[in-house]
Specification:
The protein is of the alpha+beta class and about 950 residues long. It folds into 5 domains: about 150 residues, Isoleucyl-tRNA Synthetase, Domain 1 (Orthogonal Bundle), CATH 1.10.730.10; about 220 residues, no CATH class; about 200 residues, Alpha-Beta Complex (Isoleucyl-tRNA Synthetase, domain 2), CATH 3.90.740; about 35 residues, no CATH class; about 60 residues, Ubiquitin-like (UB roll). Strands 24, 25, 26, 27, 28 and 29 form a 6-stranded mixed sheet that branches. Strands 2-1-22-23 form a 4-stranded parallel sheet, sandwiched between helices. It has a 4-stranded antiparallel sheet with strand order 6-5-7-17. The protein is globular, with a radius of gyration of 35 Å. The model has no long low-confidence stretch (mean pLDDT about 95).
C-alpha cells in the first residue's frame, strides 16, 4: 500500500492491525479475570458468587486434538469455533456452560519423532501442546483453562491406570446384565451359589485352578490369541487400526495374524447394551448404523458336528439349511486342525483334495503358510479360484447322519464366528464355488423361484430336501422363520446345538509394543499371574530409556516376535515389592496401553481436574453429566468431532463408561448424550507434470487453466495437508484479517456438518461485514460513538426483532451460517441511517458476540458498558413485532407469476381476491377467470 493510500484510511477504521490490538487485549482480560470459569457445585472450583452459579448447566465438549508438530491449519479449528459460538450463546442465554480443551498426547507420531531425533517424546509433545494452546488462544476460544488436561500428565494417567484396575477387578454378570467386583464372584464360588466349570466345590480346587477360573471372568485379561501383528511397526494392532486392505492404518505396513500373549478388554460382554443403548442417544443415524454394523449382532444357532470324539461347533444364521451342509470348512488357524489331521491320507481321498502333498499334516502346514501371507480382505475376496485342502478327517452331519469332509480354506477367518462353518453350497455363492472346485455335493434346501437354476440361491423360500422322519424332523414346506424355529427346537432337544446370538465385534486388544503410552498398573508373580498394584502405588510412571523404538522387522517377516523398549530396562522391569504378603520379586508388564485409553474418560476429568482423591467427585459428575430425568442416559450435552471416530474412540469410551456406571462410579449411563459431526474444510492442490505438489498459493488461473510460474499444473480437490502444499494456517488469517474475521468466515461458509472448500479470497467478505458493523457504532474519523438514543423507526424495529427471533432459533439448532446471514441483513439495513438507534445497536453487538467476540466486546465497551458482555442477556424478540403488517402475494395466471400485490396481513379472502384480479386485469384481457385460489398469506392462483 502506498503512503497516499494509507493516508486515505480513516484513523478509526476497523483494520487487521486494530483487530489484532483489540483481540490480544481482550484475550488478556478474559484470562486475567477468569471470564469463562465455570463453577462446580462442590470442591475447589465451586464459586457461589459466580453469575451462573446454580443456573441450568450445559456441558459442551470437543473431541480433543493430538498435538502434532505441524500445528493447526484452518481446517482443524472448524469444530472448535463452532462449539465456542454455541457455548458463548448458551452462556448469554443464562446457562452455566462448561467448555474446556485438553490434549490426547500419547501416541506413535511423537515416539517415531523421538526415534528419528533422539528427543524425548515428552519434550516434543509438551512443546507441541504449548504451540496448540497459543494458536487456540489466538482464536479467542472461551475455554475454562483451569480444567485443561493432557493424557501424558502423571496426575491424569494415574487415574487412567486406576480405571484399568476397576476393569481388571470386575466381571460381567450376564444374568444381572452389569459388571460386578471380582470379589463378589469369588464369594459366590466359595459359598456354592455359583457352580465351578467342572462342578467341583471351590474349596477342593488348588489356588492355581481358582485363579484360572477367576481370570477367565475378568473384564481385562491376558490372552494368547490371534492378534494383528505388524512387523513394520514392531507392534500389534486392534482390528479397528487395520485398514480394509489388511494394512496398518499408520504407516501402511502389511498386518499378519499371529498368536501372541496380550492384554484384552472384554468389550464383547457389553455388545447388547452397546447396541440397544444407541436408541437413547441423540446421535446422527449414520454413526449409529456404523456402530450397529461394527458390533454385528446376528441371530441364529450353534450346531455341533462331531469328528470322532472332537466336537466342531459352527455358528449359522440359517440353521434351517443344515440338511444342505455337505462339508465343513475350518480357518487355517483353528485350534482343532492339528488334532484332526492324521499322518496319512484316508483311503479313497481325491487327488484334488490333497493339494499335491504326501500327507494331511504336510498339506495343512503348507496351506497355513500361504494363508498367513494374505490379508483378511484378500482371503475373503470373491476370487474365481477357491483354494483349500482336505484335513484328512470327516464329521457327522447331525440331521442326516452323513459323513462330510472337513477342509481348511482361507476364506474362513479364525476371528469371526467360531472359525468354522458348515458349508451349504446351494445357498452360498462362495460355498458353491468351492464345492465345484473340489467336486463336492450340492443339495438345495430352499426352493428357488421358477426358472432359477445353475448357481446358489440366497433368497427365501419354502424348505425342501429337509426331512429325516427317522429322527423326528421334517422341515419341508415350512417358510424360513418357521423352519428356523423348528430346527433350533430339535437341536436343543437332541443335544446337537442351541439357538444363539453372535457378534462381529471382538474383544479389544489393549497392548502395544511401544514406549510412549501408559504403563500397566500390574506386575507378574513367579507363576506368571498378573497381580494388580494397590492404588497407593499409582501412578506407575514411565521410566527413562535410551532407545524409544520397539524393534521393527522386515514388513514381510510374519514370524518375527515383539521386543518392546520397556523390556530393555531390566532394572525397572524386575522389582521387589511388598503387596501385603511380604517382599517378593515381581516382573512388570513391558507393553503399554493404546492411545485410546486416555480418550476413553477425559470428559470426566474436565469436571474435577484438581481432585487428588477421586477421578471425579460424584456430585460434580451428577451435576454436569447426570441423567436429566427418568430414562435419560445422561452424558455431555453436546459432543462435536469427526465421523472417523465412529467405531474407535466412541465405542471404546462407551464401554469404559458403562463399566464405571455399573460399579457405581458415575451416574450417567452414556458418556455423550448428543453427538454432532462437523464437516471438513477442503482445499485445492496442484501437481506439476512430474506429479509433484507445488505451493498452492503460487498458482494462478489463466483462461480456466492453472499455472505455477510458466508451468501448467493439474488441479485436484480434497483434504488440506502439509504434504499437498495447500495448507493455510489460522495464524496467517489472524495476521491478515484478525481472528474475528476468520471465525465469522468459517462459520458462514455453510452448514457446520457439511464439508466445504476453503477460499482465501472469500475471507474478505467477512472482513467487510465486520467493518460495516463497526461503522454502525463507531465514527471512523473521530472514533466517537455514532449511536442515538432516539427510537428506531417502525421498519427497523420490526427487522431487528425478526432477526433476533431467527438468530436465536438458528443458534439453538447449530445453524451458524444462516444466523450470520441474518446479522448481515440487519447490518445492511442500518447503513441507510445517519445514526444507529441504541435499541438496535446493542442487540446487534450482543448477537454478534458468539461469532466475533473481540470486536463485540470492544463495541459493547464503546457503547458505555463496563466489563465483559460474556454474561449479558442474549436479546429476546418481542412477539408483537414479529407479526407482519402486510403480506406480499405473488399472483399466478395459468401457473406463471404475472404480478404481485401488497395486502394487509389480516385481509380476508375476498379483499385479496379482488386486489389480485385487478393486478392481472391486463393479462386477462377481459377473460373471466374459471377459478381463483387464494392461499392465505402466500399466493393467489388464477385459472383463465
Amino acid at each position: 500500500m502506498t503512503e497516499a493510500a494509507a493516508s486515505d484510511i480513516p484513523p478509526f477504521r476497523y483494520t487487521a492491525a486494530l483487530a489484532g490490538e483489540i483481540e490480544l487485549r481482550w484475550q488478556d482480560a478474559w484470562a486475567r479475570e477468569g471470564t469463562f470459569h465455570a463453577p462446580n457445585p462442590t470442591g475447589p472450583l465451586a464459586d457461589p458468587a459466580h453469575p451462573r452459579s446454580g443456573a441450568e448447566k450445559l456441558y459442551v465438549l470437543d473431541m480433543f486434538p493430538y498435538p502434532s508438530g505441524a500445528g493447526l491449519h484452518v481446517g482443524h479449528p472448524l469444530g472448535y469455533i463452532g462449539t465456542d459460538c454455541y457455548a458463548r450463546y448458551q452462556r448469554m442465554a443464562g446457562r452455566n456452560v462448561l467448555h474446556a480443551m485438553g490434549f490426547d498426547a500419547f501416541g506413535l507420531p511423537a515416539e517415531q519423532y523421538a526415534v528419528q531425533t533422539g528427543t524425548h517424546p515428552r519434550a516434543t509433545t509438551v512443546a507441541n501442546i504449548e504451540r496448540y494452546k497459543a494458536q487456540l488462544r489466538r482464536l479467542g476460544l472461551a475455554h475454562d483453562n483451569r480444567r485443561s488436561v493432557a493424557t501424558i500428565d502423571t496426575d491424569f494417567y494415574r487415574w487412567t491406570q486406576w480405571i484399568f484396575l476397576q476393569v481388571f477387578n470386575s466381571w460381567y454378570d450376564r444374568q444381572a446384565r452389569r459388571a460386578r467386583p471380582i470379589a463378589e464372584l469369588v464369594a459366590e464360588f466359595a459359598a456354592g451359589d455359583r457352580p465351578t466349570p467342572d462342578g467341583r466345590p471351590w474349596a477342593e480346587l488348588t489356588a492355581a485352578q481358582q485363579r484360572r477360573i477367576v481370570d477367565d471372568h475378568r473384564l481385562a485379561y491376558v490372552s494368547e490369541a490371534p492378534v494383528n501383528w505388524c512387523p513394520g511397526l514392531g507392534t500389534v494392532l486392534a482390528n479397528e487400526e487395520v485398514t480394509a486392505d489388511g494394512r496398518s492404518e499408520r504407516g501402511n505396513f502389511p498386518v499378519f495374524k499371529r498368536n501372541l500373549k496380550q492384554w484384552m478388554m472384554r468389550i464383547t460382554a457389553y455388545c447388547d447394551r452397546l447396541v440397544d443403548d444407541l436408541d437413547t442417544l441423540d446421535w446422527p443415524e449414520p454413526i449409529k448404523l456404523m456402530q450397529r454394523n461394527w458390533i454385528g449382532r446376528s441371530t441364529g444357532a450353534h450346531i455341533e458336528f462331531r469328528a470322532g470324539r472332537e466336537p466342531i461347533r459352527v455358528f449359522t444364521t440359517r440353521p434351517d439349511t443344515v440338511f444342505g451342509a455337505t462339508y465343513l470348512v475350518l480357518a487355517p488357524e483353528h485350534e482343532l486342525v492339528d488334532a484332526l489331521a492324521p499322518a496319512a491320507w484316508p483311503v479313497g481321498t481325491k487327488d484334488a483334495w490333497t493339494g499335491g502333498h504326501a500327507s494331511p499334516r504336510a498339506a495343512v502346514e503348507a496351506y497355513r503358510k500361504a494363508a498367513a501371507a494374505k490379508t483378511d480382505v484378500e482371503r475373503q475376496a470373491d476370487a474365481k479360484e477357491k483354494t483349500g485342502v482336505f484335513v484328512g478327517a470327516y464329521a457327522t452331519n447331525p440331521v442326516t447322519g452323513a459323513q462330510i469332509p472337513i477342509f481348511v480354506a482361507d476364506y474362513v477367518l479364525a476371528g469371526y464366528g467360531t472359525g468354522a462353518i458348515m458349508a451349504v453350497p446351494a445357498q452360498d455363492e462362495r460355498d458353491w464355488a468351492f464345492a465345484e472346485a473340489f467336486d463336492l455335493p450340492i443339495v438345495r434346501t430352499v426352493q428357488p423361484p421358477e426358472g432359477f437354476a445353475g448357481t446358489a440361491y440366497t433368497g427365501d423360500g419354502p424348505a425342501i430336501n429337509s426331512a429325516a422322519p427317522d429322527r423326528g424332523l421334517d422341515l419341508d414346506g415350512l417358510g424360513v422363520a418357521d423352519a428356523k424355529a423348528r430346527i433350533v427346537e430339535w437341536l436343543e432337544a437332541n443335544g446337537h446345538g442351541a439357538g444363539a446370538v453372535t457378534y462381529r465385534l471382538r474383544d479389544w486388544l489393549f497392548s502395544r509394543q511401544r514406549y510412549w503410552g501408559e504403563p500397566f498398573p500390574v506386575v507378574y508373580d513367579a507363576d506368571g499371574n498378573a497381580v494388580a498394584l494397590p492404588e497407593s502405588m499409582l501412578p506407575v510412571e514411565l521410566p527413562e530409556v535410551d532407545d524409544f523404538s520397539p524393534r521393527t522387522f522386515d514388513p514381510a517377516d510374519a514370524d518375527s516376535d515383539p521386543e518392546t523398549p520397556l523390556s530393555r530396562r531390566r532394572d525397572w522391569v524386575e522389582v521387589e515389592l511388598d503387596l501385603g504378603d511380604g517382599p517378593k520379586r515381581y516382573t512388570r508388564e513391558t507393553n503399554v496401553m493404546p492411545q485410546w485409553a486416555g480418550s476413553c474418560w477425559y470428559e470426566l476429568r474436565y469436571l474435577d481436574p484438581t481432585n487428588a482423591d477421586r477421578f471425579v467427585d460424584p456430585a460434580n459428575e451428577a451435576y454436569w453429566m447426570g441423567p436429566r430425568a427418568e430414562g435419560d442416559c445422561g452424558g455431555t450435552d453436546l459432543y462435536v468431532g469427526g465421523s472417523e471416530h465412529a467405531v474407535l474412540h466412541l465405542l471404546y469410551a462407551r464401554f469404559w463408561h458403562k463399566v464405571l456406571y455399573d460399579l457405581g462410579h458415575v451416574s450417567s449411563v452414556e458418556p455423550f448424550r448428543k453427538l454432532f459431526n462437523q464437516g471438513y474444510i477442503q482445499a485445492y492442490a496442484y501437481t506439476d507434470p512430474r506429479g509433484v505438489y507445488v505451493n498452492a498459493e503460487e498458482v494462478v488461473e489463466r483462461d480456466g487453466r492453472y499455472f505455477h510460474g510458466d508451468t501448467e499444473v493439474r488441479r485436484e480437490y480434497g483434504k488440506m495437508g502439509k504434504s499437498l502444499r495447500n495448507v493455510v494456517t489460522p495464524d496467517e488469517m489472524c495476521a491478515t484479517y484478525g481472528a474475528d474475521t476468520f471465525r465469522v468466515y468459517e462459520m458462514s461458509m455453510g452448514p457446520l456438518e457439511v464439508s466445504r472448500p476453503w477460499e482465501t479470497r472469500a475471507v474478505v467478505g467477512s472482513y467487510r461485514f465486520l467493518q460495516r458493523v463497526w461503522r454502525t457504532v463507531v465514527d471512523e474519523r473521530t472514533g466517537a460513538p455514532r449511536v442515538t438514543d432516539a427510537p428506531a423507526d417502525e421498519a427497523t424495529r420490526r427487522l431487528l426483532h425478526r432477526v433476533i427471533d431467527g438468530v436465536r432459533a438458528d443458534m439453538d439448532a447449530i445453524r451458524f451460517n444462516t444466523a450470520i446471514a441474518k446479522l448481515i441483513e440487519l447490518t445492511n439495513g442500518l447503513t441507510r441511517l445517519s445514526a444507529t438507534p441504541r435499541e438496535v445497536a446493542e442487540p446487534l453487538v450482543l448477537m454478534l458476540a458468539p461469532f466475533a467476540p473481540h470486536v463485540a466486546e470492544e463495541l459493547w465497551r464503546r457503547l458505555g458498558h463496563a466489563g465483559s458482555l460474556a454474561y449479558a442477556d442474549f436479546p429476546v424478540a418481542d412477539p408483537a413485532l414479529l407479526v407482519a403488517e402486510t403480506v406480499t402475494y405473488p399472483v399466478q395466471v395459468n401457473g406463471k407469476v404475472r404480478g404481485r400485490i401488497e395486502a394487509p396481513a389480516d385481509a380476508d379472502e375476498e379483499t385479496v381476491r379482488a386486489a389480485a384480479l385487478e393486478a392481472v386485469a391486463a393479462v386477462l384481457a377481459g377473460r373471466a377467470p374459471r377459478k381463483v385460489i387464494v392461499v392465505k398469506g402466500r399466493m393467489v392462483s388464477v385459472v383463465a
